[in-house]
User: Fold this.
Amino acid sequence: MKLRPERAGADPMGLVGWVFADLMLALVVVFLATQPGDPRAGAEPKPQATTTTSTTTTAPPTTTTTKPQAPPSVDANYICIRVQTNPGQVTAGSAEVDRVAAEVQQKLEAVGLKDRRAGIVLIFGVAGDPGPGKRYAQLFNDLVIPKVSGPFVGSARRLFWGSGKGQFADGSIELNIYPLVGPGEPRLPAASEC
Assistant:
């Protein structure tokens, strides 16, 4: 048997290129085969809740369809309430806590938030420095808010330092209350200023 003579121009690197191309093609096929399809394909549409009411009259039966209510949303505008506290006297069980809670309750009623729930409440403790300001906000959140009935139950609260810019005395608290808006509850017309 006669062996073919080697070609003078044969390059083994050309073979490496073809092997690399074949490997890439195999990887693409594997990649495409492992990709999930359309998650909605084959999914059954959820039936809407329907209520059927039948009567025993000569009229045909009445069918009523009710749409599920959307969950409440947080209003984009807020109501601002400011109260003055005496930080040295805001301690558990003190008369100052009761006084401030009563003042907050009165202001909530005045702006129409007594019977509404708050979605988000931002509490600013006013002080010359951030440390005491945040501490005032924390004391207000821990001691005063639990004594106020109404909108703060279940609300998300964040504590901040408010500089007051020389306009407000140390120890004053500013509340930015973003109420929940649900069926029958109007949105606020605009953000209020303290």
Notes: The longest helix spans residues 12-34.
